[in-house]
Amino acid sequence: MEDQDSNPAKEVARDVFPFLRVYKDGTIQRLVATESLPPGLDSETNVVSKDVVIFPETGVSARLYLPNSAVAKKLPLVVYYHGGGFFAASTASREYHSALNRIVAASNVILASVDYRLAPENPIPVPYDDAFAALEWIAGAGGGSEPWLRDHADLDRVYLAGDSCGANMSHHFALKLSGSGRALRIRGVAMIHPYFWGKDPIGAEVGDGFRKAMVDNWWLFVCPSEKGCDDPLINPFVEEGNGSGLQKLGCERVIVVVAGDDILKDRGRLYYEKLVGSGWKGKAEYLETEGKDHVFHIIQPDCEEAKTVFKRLGAFFNDEP
Questions:
Q1: How far apart are CA 318 and CA 158, in angstroms?
Q2: Is 294 annotated in the active site?
Q3: Which of 112, 211, 300, 315 is the most buried (most CB within 10 A)?
Q4: Residue 164's closest CA among 254, 283, 257, 94?
Q5: Is 15 noted as a catalytic residue in this protein?
Q6: Are strands 20-23 and 28-30 parallel, antiparallel or unpaired?
Q7: pTM of this prediction?
Q8: Annotated catalytic, 154?
Q9: Ranges for the Alpha/beta hydrolase fold-3 domain (predicted)?
């Protein structure tokens, strides 16, 4: 049960700053990305959107975005996973809806933003399972029943993209598809401010105990396993994880985007460096935005730095140098 209203009389059982609080009576108060916007025509970007239910039994859905000027030609298909630590935000969140309209306008793509179920009500690995099943539906036979996907999606140019935990999922799905025998083929992966972590601090984490503990708390809340922050899902570089298998990443191109003031920055740079040194045969790109923090492009989609990120993503999705 979720309670969006603050009640000072309630006793807090768990504070997952800055995203949510869990009260002792079992209610959950989400504190960020709680304002929703409906789909439709966005007059600022001339992008139109609509919601599509994928799996009625679970409620998993997607918000589809299409340039309103799109004609009969096929466009690159971007399957996007929103961030929020696996426990916050949705495809309808005001911040995501606004930013994705701008990404689509800058990229001239058709984009499917996946609304997976959230933890803690649906603990890990449910968000991963939902998101991967939605990917197979969107880029597979299920998507053929959806007119926008059928008429406008070029299934030879499918990209995974996501920010924060959405970038984390995109990484795991690109590995999962490698050598799987599935017909689904991914052209590239755009990993924006990827949410990877680990028990032992690196880089800026060493001198920032507050934010290190904060991010520890996020992961331990959604995945209270005995492996902690070295669970292979969050730390792809542990021995039993997938770090040693980066050369098998099932795509041709990857772009890693980080923000200079983000506590997750060093993990993103490490991912890029390990990917380049892994023997993977694809092309890797790296973009760092100085002076900005985590998912600033979602929070401030009209700032000049966000526009630069959107332009770079557009080039990436359209195979431009």
A1: 11
A2: yes
A3: 112
A4: 257
A5: no
A6: antiparallel
A7: 0.94
A8: no
A9: 78-297
